[in-house]
């Protein structure tokens, strides 16, 4: 039996969730707020901005937003803004996370992001240790930002594609 839930199980849970739509420029999540909600991107593009720096641009269907605030029991740490019309399934976090299939889905996305961050951190460290120019290191950091924007989301997209 696979650890990660099958596509049919996830589809059943997602189909029952209410949806919310945001227009370009509209704030989806504001840093410092506490919503108790998890948002699963159905379609669209959003940016995640923390302390004035864009840390992710997310467009993959199935991507989860708001999970860190919920899992760490603290306010949201970043702003999420719609870059184009974006539609989400909206779940009450406590309810959704009581479902083992949904919890494993979110855990797998976070694990993929963490793995990508670890690999990228090692590469940046190597570049610093070998005396690479600041411009080269900055390019590597930009690449890391892009990878982190999509690593867990690519996993989610593959899972979501199986749902169709």
Summarize the structure in words:
The structure is a single chain. The chain is an alpha+beta fold. It has a single domain (7-163), classed as Sandwich (Jelly Rolls). The protein is 49% helix and 23% strand. The protein is built from 5 helices and 8 strands; from the N terminus they run αββββββαββααα. The chain has helices at 7-15, 67-72, 93-97, 100-129, 134-163, and strands at residues 19-22, 27-29, 37-43, 46-50, 53-58, 64-65, 79-82, 86-92. A 4-stranded antiparallel sheet has the order 1-8-3-6. Strand 4 and strand 5 form a beta hairpin. The longest helix is centred in the last third of the chain and has 30 residues, at 100-129. The chain starts with 6 loop residues before the first helix and ends with a helix. The model has no long low-confidence stretch (mean pLDDT 83).
Distance between the termini: 22 Å
**Helical coverage, percent range:** 40-55%
Strand content: 15-25%
Which structural category fits the helices and strands? alpha+beta
Q: Give the overall shape, derived from the CA principal axes.
A: globular
- How many domains is the backbone divided into? 1
Give average pLDDT, whole number. 83
Secondary-structure element string = HEEEEEEHEEHHH
**Which consecutive residue ranges, at least 5 long each, have pLDDT under 50?**
none
Q: What can be said about the biggest beta sheet?
A: 4 strands, antiparallel
Described by its quaternary structure, the protein is single chain
Strand order of the largest sheet: 1-8-3-6
CATH topology: Jelly Rolls
Number of strands: 8
Query: In the CATH hierarchy, what is the class?
Result: Mainly Beta
CATH superfamily descriptor: Jelly Rolls
């Amino acid at each position: 039996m696979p650890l990660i839930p099958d596509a049919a199980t996830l589809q059943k849970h997602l189909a029952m969730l209410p949806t919310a739509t945001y227009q370009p420029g509209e704030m989806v999540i504001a840093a410092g707020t506490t919503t108790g909600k998890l948002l699963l991107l159905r379609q669209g593009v959003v940016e995640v901005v923390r302390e004035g720096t864009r840390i992710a641009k997310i467009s993959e269907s199935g991507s989860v937003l708001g999970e860190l605030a919920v899992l760490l029991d603290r306010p949201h740490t970043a702003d999420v803004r719609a870059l184009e019309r974006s539609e989400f399934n909206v779940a009450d976090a406590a309810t959704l996370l009581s479902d083992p299939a949904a919890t494993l889905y979110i855990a797998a996305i976070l694990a993929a992001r963490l793995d990508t961050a670890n690999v990228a951190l090692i590469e940046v460290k190597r570049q610093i240790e070998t005396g690479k120019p600041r411009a080269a290191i900055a390019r590597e950091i930009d690449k890391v930002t892009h990878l982190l924007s999509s690593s867990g989301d690519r996993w989610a997209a593959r899972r979501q594609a199986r749902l169709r």
